[in-house]
Amino acid sequence: MGGYILKRILLAIPLLWLILTLTFFLVRWAPGKPFRRERAIPAEIEAHLDRHYGLDQPWYVQYANYMRGLARLDFGPSYRYPDATVGEIVRQGLRASVPIGVAAYALALGLGLPLGVLAALRPQSAGVRALMGLAVFGVVTPNFVLGPLLVLLFSLTLYWFPPAGWGEGRHLVLPVVTLSAAYVAYIARLTQSGVQRALAQDYVRTAHAKGVHPRAILLRHVLRPALLSVLSFTGPSLAFLLAGTVVIEKIFAIPGLGHFFVQAALNRDYTLILGIVSFTAIALIVLNLLVDIAIALLDPRVTLGRGG
Amino acid sequence: MKRLVYIGIGLLLLGSCARPAAYFGKIEPPDEAVLRVGNGADPASLDPHRAPGSVEEQIVINLFEGLTEYDPVTLDPIPAVAEAWDVNERATRFRFHLRRTARWSNGRPVTAWDFVYSWRRALAPETASPNAYLLYYIKNAEAYNTGKVKVRDRRTGRFLTDAFGRELLLTPEELDRIRRGDLPSGARHLQELRRRLNDHPWEAVTVSAEAVGVRALDDATLEVELEAPTAFFLKLTAIGVYRPVPREAIERYGRAWTRPEHLVNNGPFRLVEFTPGRHVVLEKNPLYWDAARVRLHRAVFYPYDEATTVLNLYKAGELDVLVSGLLPPYALRRLRQKRDYVSGPYLLSYFLLVNVRRPPLSDRRVRWALALAIDRERLCRRLLAAGQQPSGAFTPSDFQGTYPRPSGVGYDPERARQLLAAAGYPEGRGLRLRFLYNTGALHAQIAEAIQADWRRAFPFIRVELINQEWQVYLDTVRLGDFDIARRSFSADFSDPTSFLDSLLATSPNNPTGWANPEYDRLIQQANAESDSRRRMTLLARAEEVLLDDLPIIPIYSSVTSFLRKPYVRGWHANVLDRHPLKFVAVEREGTAPDFLGR
C-alpha cells in the first residue's frame, strides 16, 4: 500500500506540471493584460508596468522564471493586488471557502445519510417520501435560484440573516444552506440505493436468521458497504467545495477562492489564476487519493495497487 | 404544509409592495459612529501612487492628506496640509505654505520634503505608477517619468521649444533617428526638427529626479514650477497620486508598506484592516491635525460588486451608502421614487468611437449622417432611468458655467438621409458597419437602440453588433479593429481638458485614427494660456473643431446615482463621485451639522 501511495504521488507531479503549463499559456494567449483599464495610459507608463512584472521578457523567459519560482513554492506577486502575494490571497480565499465548504458538506451528510437510510428502510412512509421529494427539489433548483429565494425570505422580509457578507457566524447560515441543498439529495439517494442493495444481500438475510439485533445488522452489515458509494462521491465534491463555489460566493459576496478565481480571470491576473488552479488541482489529487485509501480500508474486497 | 406556502407567498408580497415615497429598507442608524460603504470593488492597492482608479481613490484620500482637499460638494480645493498658497501671475509657479501641525501617524511632522520625495517617487519609472501622467503638468515631470530627452542649444544654453513655448521632448528612439538621419517620410515633425537642429550645435539632455519642478524652500514651504500656465493646478493637488507617502515606511518595508502594521499616514483616518474580497476598515486617526472635526469613528469599505447583492445589503441595513453606479438598472425606476435615492451631474461622457481610417467612415458626411440619425432624447428616456442627459457634445458639462460648451450634433434624420445619399449610400444601400461593445451594464440595449435608429433612417444599412468580454474589447479597441465602438470616459479632475486632451492625435485614448492639426493647435494654445476665460474659449473652439469632424459620436452625459441612508450626513452627490470622509457623519440623536454648515 505504501508503494501504491508513493506511485500516485509521483504520478501527480507530471500531471500538475501539465496543468500549470497549459494554464500558463492559455491565460497569456487570451486577449487583454492585467493592468488595462478603460482609460488608456501612456505607452511609456505601460512599459514601466511591463518591466516591473517581467512581462517585457519573451514568453520562454517568463515561463522559466515562473517554474523556477514554483520550485521554491513562490507563486509570485498578484498583478491585480500589487501589495500582496498570490500565496497570501489563496490563503485568504481558503479562510472563507473552507469553513463554508466543510459546513455545507457536514450539513449535507448530517441530513442526507439519515434521510437515505430512512428512505431505504421505510420506502412506503408518506413522511419519508415527502422529505425525499423536498431533497429532490434541492437538486433540481439551481443554487442561483435557491440562494436569492432564501435571501428574499430570510433577509429582506424577516430580517433574520444578513443577505450577504462575510466575517461573522450569522453570515454563514444562508450560503451553507444553499450550498448543501443539492448535496443533501445526492447523498440521500446514494445512501438509499446503497442500503437497498445491501439489504438484498444474502449475508444480511443470514445475519437476520442468526438472530443478530437489527440495529447491529444495519450498522455493521448494511451501512458499511452502503457508504462506499457516498465516500467515492465525497472526494471530488469536497475538493470542489473547498476550491470555492463561484456562484454562491458571488450571490453572497463571500471572499472565497471561487470569488478570487473569477476576478483573476476577468482581470487577467496571470499569477493569481495559476496559483488558484494549482491549489485546486492539488486538492483534487490529494482528496481522490485519500478516498481511494479510505475505500480500501473499509471494503475488504478492494486492495490497492494490485491486479486490474 | 399548504398554509406555510401561503404564509411564505404573503410575506414575499408584503416585502415587494412598500410605499413608493418611503425609504428603501431599514433606516435605523448603526450603534456607533461607523459608516459602511458599498465601494463596488476591491482596492488593487492602498499605495496612492499605485492605486489605479476611483475605487482606490475613495479609500486612499482618507488615509493620506494632500496639499488641498476636495470640497465635498463643489470639489473646489480647500486647505489641507497646505494652509495657504500663492501663485504667480502666469500660473506657472505655485508656492504652498504647509501647516506646522500636520503630522504623520508616527508623530513626525509632515514637511515640504515629504512632498518632494513623494512626487519624485510617483514619477520614478521603477515605481510604475499608472497615474504618473497626472503629474506631467509639473516641470520636467514627463521627461523624467518617460525617459524622454530635451534638446539644448549649446551656444545659448536654452532648450528648444515648440510653437507654444513648451520644451521639446524626444524619445530616445526619435533622437537616435535624428542622429542617424533615418527619417521616414511619415515623421514630418522629426524632419522639421532635424532642419532646425542643423543650424545649431546642440546636445540631448536626460532629466533626473532632481530636475523635476518641485522644491522645498524650507520645512514648511513647497515651491512647484509647472511646464505651462495651469490655473487649475489646485484641482490636481487633491488627486491621490499627488498625496504624500511616508519615506521611512516605504524604504523599510518595500512592497509591504501598505499593510496595517507598517502603514504610516497623515490623513484623518488610519488603516486597521485590509482583507481582499472582504473589506477595508479605517479608524479615526487621533494624531490628525484636525481630528477634533472628524466625526466618524470607523469606516468600512466593502468590495461587493454584484448589483443585486449590493441592493439587498443596503436594504437590510448592512450598508449605509453606496458609491455611484452600483444600482441594478432593472430597479432604478422604483428606487428613484425612494427618499434615499440621490443623483446629480457626473463628469462622464458616453459616446461612440468612429474609426476614421476605414472607408466609408473616413467620409465626414457618413459620420455626420450616423450622428444625426440617433434619437438621443428617446434613448435616454426609454433606456436610462437614472436621468442621463442626451448630449451632442464630447464634454459632459459646462463646468459651473465657466466653459462655453458647444451644443454639438442634434437629431435630424431628414438631413442624415440627405448626407448619406450625397456620400453615395442612398437609404444606407451598401453601407455595412460593425458595432463593437462590451458585456455588461446596458451597453447591449444602447447598441440595439442605436442600430434601430439607424435602420429607421436608412432602411438598407446593415449594422452588425459585436459583443466582447471587457479585456477582449479593450484590446480590440486599442488595435483599432472596429468600425464603431461604444466608449465612456470620465474625468480625472473637473476641467474640460480632462476630456479634450484624450483626443489629441498622440493620446493613447484616441484609437479613432483621427488627427486634426487645428484641434491639437487650439488645445496646445489653450494649455499655454494663462487667462482662464480666454483659455476656456480656446478649448471650446477646439471642441467645435472636434464636433465638426465627429471622430466620436456623442450620446449622453451621465449622472451619479446612488442610495444614502437618511442618517448619513456630508456625503453629497458631486461631479467626480469623490467623498472625503472627513466631512461625513452618521447622525444619531442630536448630531450637529458638519462644520461647513451642510
What's the short version?
The complex is a heterodimer of chains A (308) and B (598). Chain A has 308 residues and is an all-alpha fold.
Topology pattern of chain A, helix = H, strand = E: HHHHHHHHHHHH
Quaternary structure classification: heterodimer
- Helical segment tally of chain B? 18
Largest interface: A-B, 57 and 62 residues
CATH topology of the domain at 96-265 in chain A: MetI-like fold
What about the largest sheet of chain B? 6 strands, mixed
Task: Please report the total strand number of chain B as a whole number.
Answer: 21
The name of the CATH architecture of the domain at 96-265 in chain A is Orthogonal Bundle
Average pLDDT rating of chain B? 90
- Return residue spans of chain A where pLDDT drops below 50 for at least 5 consecutive residues: none
Question: What would your notes on this structure say?
Answer:
The complex is a heterodimer of chains A (308) and B (598). Chain A has 308 residues and is mainly alpha-helical. Chain A has a domain at 96-265: Orthogonal Bundle (MetI-like fold), CATH 1.10.3720. Chain A has helices spanning 2-29, 43-52, 59-71, 86-121, 126-140, 143-155, 173-199, 202-209, 214-242, 246-251, 257-267, 270-298. Chain A is flat, with a radius of gyration of 24 Å. Chain B is of the alpha+beta class and 598 residues long. Chain B is built from 18 helices and 21 strands. The interface between A and B is large, with 57 and 62 residues.
